[in-house]
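Proteins fold. Shown next:

***
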Amino acid sequence: MQSLFNDPKLMSTIDELHTALENLNQMTGGNQGRIGLVLDNLRILTDNLKTITDNAKNYPSQLLFGAPPPTRKP
């Protein structure tokens, strides 16, 4: 039985994956702080989007027409 590591296609794929991971590491290495900031902003954005969609589910007319006018006392 032939060893998997003797398969030239598999070895080529492993080499390409290794190169891709090295490139990814180089791209992100100096930008850790920026990536953290982007992830924080993305979390805030998704939280806000969830709030908007929850409100749209609960109060669909508010999405189209806004808040109802204030009630007036007679």
